[in-house]
Hints:
The chain is α/β, with parallel strands linked by helices. The chain folds into 2 domains: about 5-45 and about 290-385, Aspartate Aminotransferase, domain 1; about 65-285, Type I PLP-dependent aspartate aminotransferase-like (Major domain) (Aspartate Aminotransferase, domain 2, 3-Layer(aba) Sandwich). The chain is built from 14 helices and 12 strands. The protein has helices spanning about 5-10, 15-30, 45-60, 70-85, 100-110, 125-135, 155-160, 185-195, 225-230, 255-265, 275-285, 285-310, 335-345, 370-390; strands spanning about 35, 95, 115-120, 140-145, 165-170, 200-205, 230-235, 250, 325, 350, 350-355, 365. β3, α6 and β4 (about 140-145) form a beta-alpha-beta unit. α2 (about 15-30) packs parallel to α13 (about 335-345), α4 (about 70-85) runs parallel beside α11 (about 275-285) and α12 packs parallel to α14 (about 370-390). The termini are far apart. Bound molecules: pyridoxal-5'-phosphate.
Amino acid sequence: xxxxxxxxxxxxxxxxxxxxxxxxxxxxxxxxxxxxxxxxxxxxxxxxxxxxxxxxxxxxxxxxxxxxxxxxxxxxxxxxxxxxxxxxxxxxxxxxxxxxxxxxxxxxxxxxxxxxxxxxxxxxxxxxxxxxxxxxxxxxxxxxxxxxxxxxxxxxxxxxxxxxxxxxxxxxxxxxxxxxxxxxxxxxxxxxxxxxxxxxxxxxxxxxxxxxxxxxxxxxxxxxxxxxxxxxxxxxxxxxxxxxxxxxxxxxxxxxxxxxxxxxxxxxxxxxxxxxxxxxxxxxxxxxxxxxxxxxxxxxxxxxxxxxxxxxxxxxxxxxxxxxxxxxxxxxxxxxxxxxxxxxxxxxxxxxxxxxxxxxxxxxxxxxxxxxxxxxxxxxxxxxxxxxxx
Length: 390
Ligand SMILES: *Cc1c(COP(=O)(O)O)cnc(C)c1O
């Protein structure tokens, strides 16, 4: 057999697979599993969005649109980015992709030459390193921990920069930690990027899931130099409970976006046309639905954090955003995978081992689930931890 591409065949299989297949096995046996593993909202897509998509289908909006995305949606996004994020982009600076993930993958393809380095604060969303590698780049990790609230300092960033560095990836609020950078902290990171003339890829997908402790800020809004060094990435999946619609976007300086458009025109042509009509309704009409979902997440966050922080041996900073808690379970003397496997086998609770996100001291729980699941699952989690201390 002819050899396959070395970079692609070297992609690490997801460390979560063992957990999800075991959880499915237990469920098939009729066992009630408390699941905290999902990375998506448990709500349905709001009706106003579905109605707009259905209307688009009825009106035969089923053909190709511009490769960079539906012009009406790009215009609506410019209005959103101006009003909500304080960033001025023209429609010619916005690209709609098949999800935030697809937008990010193409952004890295466009930024990276072979051997270029991209700085990724760890723990990280598990796709960043693989995307960088597939684009020919080298991920460089900056370690953060529960002690520093899982935040990278400007000094840490500066120390990681080499002549080969092209970009740093920022994700605030963060998946998996739920932590956020204050506007001042973000600005200080941006200043380092500007000083060394590297890009900031700012993944703002959880911007709406914030609970009042820290103000959400957009890197590109801090000033012209920040704007010139930033690619803003976002998507519809999390904010509007639209994970299966596959719509995300990227916005940035014109020369960069021109190259990105050309790439997408060959790789994807454009995202789904009628889904994009639904997305316009999301931006214009779904505000009240988003508020309802965020309120539910806020209540669950309070509850799960209260239960988690009461467990002896667990260290857990209070998450400021997204819908995850990321407790440090290292005092129990197990790897994150062992902890997750035993928790699932002995107490039927599914969590994601932190090793999947580049941190073997923690596990990730998503609270995009019912309050009942939180109560019962945390009761079991607490019992498991107590059994380990004996
Ligand atoms: C979910 C997620 C995305 C993108 O999701 P899409 O469904 O592809 O839009 C991007 N970044 C992070 C950190 C995420 O958690």
